[in-house]
Amino acid sequence: MRKIYVNVHGTSRGTPGEAAIGILVTNEKGEPLAQVGRLIGRATGEVAEYKALLEGIRLAAGLAPEEAVFLTDHPLVANQVNGFSAPREPHLVHLNRSALDLLAQLPRWRVSLVEREVNHPACRLAEGAFRERTRLERERAELLRELDHLLDGLPPEDLRRVVAYVRSLHP
């Protein structure tokens, strides 16, 4: 594979707050090769962006392209990886070093700062991780309400059987 494009986006809801990453890898024709959208726990926006970049680099390395272009809408991370500025906080120094070490495994690479509209596919994947979590939480709450309704009025011996069955589901 000659050249790939890797859109990366990390976002957090709070500083720090719950965070997610989104990554879309495409070939020169714009055809998707890989995509990721997942929650990563608590982080700041900068840490989330670095984590998205790190995951994007790993995906790119697995495809063994001749050249990888990483697209981000986060100026601080782009400038730090490109050497225009240096990270000040120790945890960002570590993430920056990790990114540069991984990038060194690629034959040719560059990190380009793009407008958020250009990076929309990666943003959409990160936001999708938040939406999926919300959907799962809502589904769980509905199932618990239904279960509570079904259990209401069962005699103790039936409740014991239900509890034994539920315990059997746990590893």
Question: What are the salient characteristics of this protein?
Answer:
171 residues, alpha/beta, Nucleotidyltransferase, domain 5, five-stranded mixed sheet
SSE diagram, text form:
Blueprint: E1 3-14, E2 17-27, E3 32-43, H1 45-63, E4 67-72, H2 75-81, H3 90-103, E5 109-113, H4 120-151, H5 156-169
Parallel strand pairs: 1-4, 4-5
Antiparallel strand pairs: 1-2, 2-3
Helix pairs in contact: 1-3
Describe the structure.
The chain is α/β, with parallel strands linked by helices. It has a single domain, classed as 2-Layer Sandwich (Nucleotidyltransferase, domain 5), CATH 3.30.420. It has five helices and five strands; from the N terminus they run E-E-E-H-E-H-H-E-H-H. It has helices spanning 45-63, 75-81, 90-103, 120-151, 156-169, and strands spanning 3-14, 17-27, 32-43, 67-72, 109-113. The protein has a five-stranded mixed sheet with strand order 3-2-1-4-5. Helix 1 (45-63) packs parallel to helix 3. The longest helix has 32 residues, at 120-151. The N and C termini lie far apart (43 Å). The model has no long low-confidence stretch (mean pLDDT 95).
